[in-house]
Amino acid sequence: MNPTFVVLANLTDTAEQAARYAAVLGEPLHARVALLHLYHDPLLDPELATVTTAQAYRTQAEVAAGLADMAGRLPAPAEVTVSVQAMPAAVEEAVQRHQPLLLAMGLSTEHDLLDHLLHNQALPVLRATHRPLLLVPEAAPPARVPRRVVLAIDAERFTLNAAARALAPLLRAWPAAYTVVHVAAAHERQAFPGQRALGQVHLSGLLPVATPLELYEESHLSPATGVLQALDDVQADLVVLIARPRSFLGRLFHQSVTAQVLRHSRVPVLLLPAEAPTLPGWMPGLS
Asked: CB 3.0 to 4.6 Å from 173: which of 28, 96, 121, 231, for a disulfide?
């Protein structure tokens, strides 16, 4: 069975661009796209009114028809689901049904709406599924199969979870060059941090051991600024960031490197969930 990418979609150009990115990135694996729309009547749910002000009010049938048209314009087989369930239940049902390799959504450049999407959609999706999440900025260039991918790796060790490791065949299928970016933090005291970052990527299993990796190191800029500078310098098509479990509690999109990169990146950001670190037997867990 061909893999599936689930895209959180609505009737906006930003959502269609995210869906197109999902379709194009999945082409090497002949992936299918499943468009998932969370339908809430703003007349019954006034809290959503500010999110829908840019769109005329549409009935559920009109939304489904519009999404079907969108699906027909994608360069991959696609289907549409319009759900009236709350976010966690709708996403859980879609994950159970499709077992997707990743989930995707578009990001608006409008600050308040971006914050709403990150905190009320992207973060709950990560919490509920612990699956890779592709975030496509509104200003992203037209979708194409990546030719150069940046993997931004800090000094902290990580182990990708099973869902992130399952994405390895997709990354291997892209005809891409991979650059590991390490921006030294002010508190970092380890020797050869860039080489450690390369080693972590090799140990992660995300790419074959023989994959050539370029190293980009920066020590004079803040982590987020350094990553963004690297994207420009290497002309990257995509950036990969590691999402650690503790970040799912709320810090991931609040004053973090990930948040800053998402707010300013002109290329899609792929978040790969990591496993929680295993505590030694003698160390008590925190509850």
From this structure: 28
